[in-house]
Amino acid sequence: MASTKIKIPIIDFCNLELKPDTPQCVESIVNTFWSDGNPNFCNEAKSFYKPLMELDAC
Fold first, then answer.
1. How far apart are CA 18 and CA 28, in angstroms?
2. Which domain of life is it from (predicted)?
3. What is the C-alpha to C-alpha distance for residues 23 and 8, in angstroms, rounded to an integer?
4. Which of 8, 30, 51, 54 shows the smallest number of beta carbons within 10 Å?
């Protein structure tokens, strides 16, 4: 039986900069974790962006 190798992406968490100061940053973060992107997750995360920034401004 042939073995199937799964490639798991290596992410350098020490140098990963997460600065959610723009909605476009969400796309950048999503593309870091999913090479083909993940539109569903990206749209869901963006839907939280505006309310989160409004809370941060208080």
1. 9
2. Eukaryota
3. 27
4. 8
Q: Which domain holds residue 35?
A: 19-57
Instruction: Identify whether 1 is part of a domain.
Output: no
| Alpha carbons 57 and 43: distance in angstroms, whole number | 22
Total number of residues shown for the chain: 58
DSSP secondary structure code for residue 22 in this structure: S
pTM (two decimals): 0.50
Phi-psi region of 41 (alpha: psi -120 to 50; beta: other; left: phi over 0): alpha
- How far apart are alpha carbons 5 and 49 in whole angstroms? 37
pLDDT tens digit sequence for 7-18: 666 666 666 666
Total number of domains in the chain: 1
